[in-house]
Amino acid sequence: MRSHILDTSAIHTLCFARPPEKWRLVWDGVRSGRARLVLLEPIVSEMASRLARQYGRERVESTVRFLKGLGRTDIYNPDDPAALEAGFLHGLQRHDLSLVDATIIVAAIRNRAMLVTHDGSMRDVAEGLGVRVSWLPLAKREGMPSSAQ
Length: 149
Fold this sequence. Notes:
The structure is a single chain. By secondary structure, the chain is an alpha/beta fold. It has a single domain, classed as 5'-nuclease (Rossmann fold, 3-Layer(aba) Sandwich). Helices cover 56% and strands 13% of the residues. It has helices spanning 8-16, 21-32, 41-55, 57-69, 80-92, 99-111, 120-128; strands at 3-6, 36-40, 73-76, 114-117, 133-135. It has a 5-stranded parallel sheet with strand order 3-2-1-4-5, sandwiched between helices.
């Protein structure tokens, strides 16, 4: 079974906007249970931080419940080795990844999951580490939080 990790920008596009054609099969597979969604609690925190002002607390909480309630959603909580690896990836490499982004990449490696993102820097680092990535440039949309662009 295929596994996917959606970063916050991808969740925003898939849950709050119209899924682009390239990601439609991924999204349909996740929603139908034909594919596994790996969800990290730091992504939930990032969603609340970036999307609550635009969509409101209730809608963000509802979306989190929806994602967690999908038939094949696994909540990934990094163990000590994974947490250390994410810290080293964030702190010792030359790139502009956040600690959450580094944690997502480590989770993708450990779960053999494809990363779905709009983040070009994240794509480059993940691909360099052998992670399969589905990337789309982020089109600027009116009303989208600037931190998510």
